[in-house]
Write a structure and sequence with these properties.
This protein is α/β, with parallel strands linked by helices. The protein has a single domain, classed as Glycoside hydrolase/deacetylase (TIM Barrel, Alpha-Beta Barrel). Helix content is 39%, strand content 21%. It is built from five helices and eight strands. The strands form two sheets. A six-stranded parallel β-sheet has the order 5-4-3-2-1-6, with helices on one face. A two-stranded antiparallel ribbon has the order 7-8. The longest helix has 22 residues. The chain starts with a strand and ends with a strand. The C terminus is likely disordered. The structure holds zinc ion. The site of zinc ion has 5 residues, from loops.
Length: 180
């Protein structure tokens, strides 16, 4: 089982701590898709109240720490960016700027990044072309993987309960919806 984790809200201490505890328990199964600072989205979707500078500083500090512990816990790192729910309706220039500025930002800390997951799993042929030009492959779904957000580890947006670690019949550890 692999966890494809969209890292969106690590500026929240509880969510950061929960993500770290998963990494320290099961790092090798984790594939972290890191967002660059997207202030508008953070404010509108996650209720972030700081400035762009504060957000950039906060994410840079957290990602630099991930870089430091990566050799020990061996999780994978990739890029996560929210372009639009209808990217085909957006003109090329702002799409290019959003995609490439964010990629440059995360590659400042992780130059080896070579894969992306688009927010809402939405992209178009132009974004696919940009991915090819930047040596990036699109990873949305892989067999035997759970897609989740960092904040689902604290409180899943559907069940309002956190994922929890359970031992399956195969004695393998996995995360499951806490439906009880
Ligand atoms: Zn996302």
């Amino acid at each position: 089982m692999t966890y494809l984790i969209h890292v969106e809200k690590v500026w929240d201490k509880q969510i950061w701590d929960n993500l770290l505890s998963l990494i320290k328990k099961d790092g090798q199964r984790c594939h972290l898709f890191l967002m660059a600072p997207q202030l508008d989205l953070q404010k509108s979707v996650h209720g972030y109240t700081g400035t762009n500078e504060e957000l950039s500083e906060e994410l840079a500090e957290k990602y630099t720490y991930l870089k430091k512990i990566q050799p020990k816990y061996r999780f994978k790192i990739a890029y996560h960016v929210h372009i639009s729910l209808q990217p085909e309706k957006m003109s090329e220039e702002p799409k290019k700027k959003l995609f490439e500025d964010g990629l440059t930002w995360v590659r400042n800390i992780f130059p080896e990044i070579n894969s992306v997951c688009f927010g809402w799993y939405k992209y178009d042929s132009y974004l696919k072309k940009l991915c090819d030009e930047n040596g990036i492959k699109i990873v949305h779904f892989t067999p035997f993987a759970i897609n989740l957000h960092d904040y689902d580890l604290t409180e899943n947006s559907y069940t309002r309960k956190p994922f929890r670690l359970v031992r399956s019949k195969l004695r393998t550890l996995t995360y499951w919806w806490d439906l009880k």
